[in-house]
Amino acid sequence: MAEAGHYPYQAPVDAYGNGGFRFADMSHRGSILCLPTGMHAWSVNTSSEITLESLQPVLDLADQIDVLFIGLGHDIVAFPREWRAQFRERNVIVEAIATGPAVRTYNVLLGEQRRVAAALIAVERAR
């Protein structure tokens, strides 16, 4: 990724797996945030590491986002109600699902020019 884990444009994810993602003719190892401000490295490696603090960049841009997909790796875990409330107060719908479906749905909505964001945990194997 360009400059310190940041690509300055929001882009579709072309591929995922092998511990990272491909987008915009680039490859990034590790998890990513796909935001209106671009593609950012995300220091979360497992669903248990997700915190409101780690999602703060999304909350900071909530006025530009209608839907947030959280790709939980291969895990399916509950997203805490109090966290959902933080997003709901900002009119952002949160869908916490496995990384593969999160990538696919993010790409569809981005292609439709919807106000979408994604927080995606990297996985070794695509499913």
From TrEMBL:
Please name the InterPro entries in this protein's record: MTH938-like_sf, NDUFAF3/AAMDC
PANTHER family cross-referenced by the UniProt entry: NADH DEHYDROGENASE [UBIQUINONE] 1 ALPHA SUBCOMPLEX ASSEMBLY FACTOR 3, NUCLEAR PROTEIN E3-3
Task: Identify this protein by name.
Answer: Membrane protein
Organism, by scientific name, is Devosia pacifica
